[in-house]
């Protein structure tokens, strides 16, 4: 019983770090996909996407380019080229796999 309690304590103490690392793995993956899927005329939009770590468990991914929303969703005159939405959707699987692997390594 003592061994079980000890292993559970190790897992509990490492869970936040494992989660943070899984989030960073996922954010890096999403950023790569966004840049790969982004429409390219000059490359300005594609190259503008960045990630910023706000806290241990919060990461922002985005751009300050004002026309990015129109590229993603389109306008009344032009259809969009979704690049952020599909990247985030693909990131869900990567997050699950990364978190499972990192938690598995704890216990």
Task: Calculate Rg over CA atoms.
Answer: 18 Å
Order of helices and strands: HHEEHH
Shape: elongated
Query: What is the tally of helical segments?
Result: 4
Global structural class: mainly alpha
Main sheet: strand order: 1-2
Roughly how much helix do the residues carry, as a percent range?
55-70%
Mean pLDDT: 89
Q: Determine the strand fraction and express it as a percent band.
A: 5-15%
Structure overview:
- There is one protein chain.
- The chain starts with a helix and ends with a helix.
- Helix 1 runs antiparallel to helix 4.
- A hairpin with a 2-residue loop joins strand 1 (50-55) and strand 2 (58-62).
- Helices cover 65% and strands 10% of the residues.
- Strands 1-2 form a two-stranded antiparallel sheet.
- It has helices at residues 2-37, 44-48, 68-73, 84-106, and strands at 50-55, 58-62.
- With 107 residues, the chain is mostly helical.
Topology:
Elements: H1 2-37, H2 44-48, E1 50-55, E2 58-62, H3 68-73, H4 84-106
Please summarize what this structure is.
The chain is mainly alpha-helical. Helices cover 65% and strands 10% of the residues.
What attributes does this structure have?
107 residues, two-stranded antiparallel sheet, mainly alpha
């Amino acid at each position: 019983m003592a061994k079980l309690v000890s292993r559970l304590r190790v897992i509990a103490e490492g869970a936040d770090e494992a989660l943070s690392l899984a989030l960073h793995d996922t954010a890096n993956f999403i950023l790569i996909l966004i840049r790969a899927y982004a429409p390219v005329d000059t490359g300005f939009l594609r190259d503008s996407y960045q990630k910023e770590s706000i806290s241990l468990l919060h990461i922002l991914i985005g751009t300050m380019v004002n026309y990015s929303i129109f590229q993603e969703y389109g306008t009344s005159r032009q259809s969009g080229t979704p690049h952020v939405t599909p990247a985030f959707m693909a990131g869900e699987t990567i997050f699950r796999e990364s978190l499972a692997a990192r938690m598995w390594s704890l216990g």
